[in-house]
Amino acid sequence: MLMDWMDRNAMNPAAPHRRLLTESRLFAMINASGDCFWELDVDRRFVYISENLARMLGYGAEELVGRSVLEVLTPEYKLEVMRLAMQRGDPKAASAGAMRHEGAFVRKDGSTTWGDTVSVPVFDDAGAHLGYFGITRDITQRKHDEQALREANAQLQAQVQRINQLHEQVREQTIRDELTGVYNRRHFVAVAERELARARRAQQPLSLVMLDVDHFKRVNDDYGHPAGDEALRVIGLLLRSTSRAEDLACRLGGEEFAVLMPGMDHPGAVARAQEWRAALASLKTRFAGVDLSLTASFGVATYPQHADTLDALMSSVDKRLYRAKEAGRNQVIGAE
Length: 336
Description:
Blueprint: H1 2-10, H2 23-32, E1 36-41, E2 46-49, H3 51-57, H4 61-64, H5 75-88, E3 99-106, E4 112-123, E5 129-138, H6 140-175, E6 183-184, H7 185-202, E7 206-213, H8 216-223, H9 225-242, E8 248-253, E9 256-262, H10 266-282, E10 284-287, E11 290-293, E12 296-303, H11 310-326, E13 332-333
Parallel strand pairs: 6-8, 12-13
Antiparallel strand pairs: 1-2, 1-5, 3-4, 4-5, 7-9, 7-12, 8-9, 10-11
Helix pairs in contact: 8-9
């Protein structure tokens, strides 16, 4: 096919002053270009391969002539080429044009190398389909660079994710009480102000429950501060494990805790406080061989029913909590 074109060029009398493009000159140009040229017959068997292609695939040129090009493609690349060929349709059709694709070739030693290929169907002067002519450029280094870049990006993403996780851990450490695992007072106040503003806009209730451990000083005096710490951890775990996802449990300080409940009406908040009171009273916390029995007193108030600011809401709850203490402890007060 290529030789037919060269023969016609050589016999063209239109430009007798030009040097003839001989076979040796054409092949020298092809090999000097760095690209790989090849020809296939209608059955996609090699009828010509350039020195560059033979070198790229690790074969002698004579070893590939007569063999199907599909034999030197990886299974994945073979499927892609066949898919594109079916998509292009009949190579003899007027609409058949160039086909470009890239994929991995299998070298003689079994290793792979990557190529970017453009191929076109070839016809003789009578329009008969002779086969295909193509140019393949070795892009193995580019593929290796792309893979290295992907791996570097993946490592960078992993590092960024790890940094974000560390930032989140640091943030959690700044907003949580280290001993009990619930949120600290500063975070509680900041979130409570936002939740109160949201409740005001949405005209929804916002309930607050506060609890204080009964006779906590006695626990410390009788069993030591480690026992007191264990008692506080138990209460923190109880509140964390039984609060709703939207609730905010915190340790206000010492043995005093609070739970903010967006959207919860007053009867519902009182009922939840009663559940926590009963659960705590039924727990037997074993520490250093001793069963610690714990109870707590609770106060409950709700916006806007009992207060219209955060300070007023906390003050109302605090008064009710201490009324529960004065009334004998281990109870919930939700009314004036």
